[in-house]
């Protein structure tokens, strides 16, 4: 480096150190971190805080608060549905980019990064595709071409505008599935075999060399027995390790983080250990779909505070567990909520027997809940030496 470069680099280092250690001064007023947004507080750690976005809610003029909060509280956004195959290509060969483009434009206006969700998943596939395979009009060779063309078209369309792509989503079974031995499950594994996973990453990389490519799944917050036959985190870990060993361009593992207060769940150290182990493979990590649902018992529905309070507190504790673990691991790049208000959450629709809800950090009237305050507190009361800025991930060539 030339001397002038050394000086410039030195100044940047000093400025960075100062920014990290100093409390920002506000003319005449003491700095109040509790008045800051999640995104502003996370920035000090180089962490991106995100939410899934429901485009109908974003566009609903009767509900301005939704749009305001997406723009002000978050530094990354994910399309809750509009980048899924059934939305992008409802009719074979005809793409509808409109709603997804709108989200990408919103993100740009609000200086937000975009997580692309999702390229390959067994759910929310268009009927022309699943029925074509079912009736035999689409054979294996054609199905593989269709998948390659879809990945290529979608990744190319958004090229340069997606930070992280969820390339493959939920490819691994759970211990409660049949057979209970963990295996590659679902439409793609059944019709193409597990080789589709490596193919998908290679096709995505060819279409956008700068996007970070993620494998995304749930129930991988912590390691269990260490046996890949019944420990899903271990199964995914070994899958990622094998993909890396074979030179497949995977850059990260996304842990969805769908928790429920009725389960045993994990402590922060267990979750941090899991993130660290993935980082040991040279992978970035992210929490991609965090929410913490609760059973809506008769008491909860009747407004009984003795039933509601423990759930709200357990929910806050679980959000906090995932965020603190992410803060502790420098390769954990983003923390995305799967919706931020109980007014627009997928939980009541997806979990109805028994009914579940209360899964997000703002209530149905957009009032921040205890879980929101705890996330904020975690971002405020964290710093060196144990919480340090993120290490940016470079896409693997
Ligand atoms: C959910 C959406 O939130 C719902 O609106 C939709 O009806 C079904 O899909 N894991 C994922 C997400 O990867 O895409 C799912 O999103 C939730 C579970």
Give a verbal description of the structure:
This protein is α/β, with parallel strands linked by helices. It has one domain (3-10, 32-381): TIM Barrel. It is built from 16 helices and ten strands. The chain has helices at residues 3-21, 38-43, 55-58, 64-73, 85-88, 98-109, 127-134, 140-157, 186-192, 196-207, 232-245, 268-279, 298-301, 305-328, 347-350, 370-380; strands at 48-53, 76-79, 113-120, 164-169, 212-217, 252-255, 258-260, 284-295, 332-337, 356-357. α14 runs parallel beside α16. An eight-stranded parallel barrel has the order 1-2-3-4-5-6-8-9, surrounded by five helices. (3S,4R)-3-hydroxy-2-oxopiperidin-4-yl beta-D-xylopyranoside is lined by residues 80-81, 169, 256, 289, 346.
List keywords for this structure.
397 residues; TIM Barrel; 16 helices; 10 strands; globular; binds (3S,4R)-3-hydroxy-2-oxopiperidin-4-yl beta-D-xylopyranoside
């Amino acid at each position: 480096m030339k001397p002038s470069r050394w000086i410039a680099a030195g100044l940047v280092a000093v400025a960075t150190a100062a920014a990290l250690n100093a409390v920002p001064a506000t003319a005449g007023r003491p700095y109040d971190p509790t008045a800051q947004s999640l995104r502003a507080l996370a920035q000090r750690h180089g962490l991106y805080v995100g939410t899934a976005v429901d485009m109908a809610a974003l566009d609903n003029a009767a509900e301005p608060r939704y749009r305001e909060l997406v723009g002000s509280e978050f530094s990354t956004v994910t399309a809750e549905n509009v980048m899924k195959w059934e939305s992008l290509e409802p009719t074979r060969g005809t793409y509808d980019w409109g709603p997804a483009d709108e989200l990408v434009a919103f993100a740009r206006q609000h200086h937000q990064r975009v997580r692309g969700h999702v390229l390959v998943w067994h759910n929310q596939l268009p009927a022309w595709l699943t029925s074509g395979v079912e009736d035999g009009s689409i054979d294996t060779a054609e199905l593989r071409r269709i998948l390659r063309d879809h990945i290529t078209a979608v990744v190319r369309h958004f090229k340069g505008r997606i930070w992280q792509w969820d390339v493959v989503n939920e490819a691994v079974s759970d211990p409660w599935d049949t057979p209970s031995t963990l295996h590659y499950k679902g439409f793609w594994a059944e019709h193409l075999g597990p080789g589709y996973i490596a193919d998908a990453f290679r096709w995505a990389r060819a279409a956008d060399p700068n996007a970070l490519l993620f494998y995304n799944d749930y129930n991988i917050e912590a390691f269990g027995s260490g046996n890949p036959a019944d420990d899903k985190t271990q199964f995914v870990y070994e899958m990622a390790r094998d993909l890396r060993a074979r030179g497949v361009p995977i850059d990260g593992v996304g842990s969805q983080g769908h928790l429920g207060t009725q389960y045993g769940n994990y402590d922060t150290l267990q979750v941090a250990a899991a993130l660290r182990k993935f980082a040991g493979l040279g992978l970035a990590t992210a929490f991609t779909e965090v929410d913490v649902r609760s059973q809506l018992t008769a008491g909860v529905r009747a407004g009984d505070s003795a039933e509601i309070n423990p759930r709200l507190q357990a929910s806050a504790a679980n959000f906090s567990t995932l965020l603190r673990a992410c803060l502790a691991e420098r390769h954990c790049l983003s923390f995305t909520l799967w919706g931020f208000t109980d007014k627009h959450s997928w939980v009541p629709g997806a979990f109805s027997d028994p009914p579940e809800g209360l899964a997000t950090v703002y209530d149905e009237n957009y009032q921040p809940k205890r879980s929101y305050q705890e996330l904020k507190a975690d971002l405020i009361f964290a710093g060196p030496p144990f919480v340090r800025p993120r290490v940016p991930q470079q896409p693997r060539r």
